[in-house]
Amino acid sequence: MDDDRAPTGPIARLGLALALAGGTVLLATALLATWSVTQRWITSQPVPGDFELVSLGSGIAVMGFLAHGTLRRTNILVDSFTGWLPRGVTRAMDAFWTLVWMAVAAVLAERLLVGARETWRSGTTTMVLGLPSWWAVGLGALGFAATALAAGYWALRLARGSKGTQG
Q1: 159 touches 95 (CB < 8 A)
Q2: Are 2 and 165 within 8 A, CB to CB?
Q3: Which residues constitute the domain of residue 43?
Q4: Quick one: which of 10, 100, 135, 153 is 20 to 30 A from 71 by CA?
Q5: Residue 167 — very low, low, confident or very high, per pLDDT cuts 50/70/90?
Q6: Is 164 within a domain?
Q7: Widest CA span of the chain, in angstroms?
């Protein structure tokens, strides 16, 4: 019998930590948006830079959720055309497409890392608050790197047909 339980090792702990951090940032972003709308309603003035902070926070939150979602295999799977195939064939196909996802995530992580270095070197800041933006791009690189690790874990596990959960 196949074992599709989520892993429990260091990759899983990293994914969970990033997801919890992403959830915390998303909650803070929602509170900021609520505060800004309320302040705008009461004083006709929003929180300065609210759209910048919501944009940064939302992006960071999404990057935080990717690895955990990949580890839990809660991403969208379309099996409309493969449901009738033998389980070994679908596992091989899942392994292949998870390997593709790993490659895409790794390329995005590398490109975001380059972008973080470039925004740090050039001193790029947000328009209203003047916050440096390199750190947000760097966190995006971390999120995609962790996602690539998570996808690599599953690609290997699916290809082997392994039942282990240490990832």
Answers
A1: yes
A2: no
A3: 10-75+87-159
A4: 135
A5: low
A6: no
A7: 63
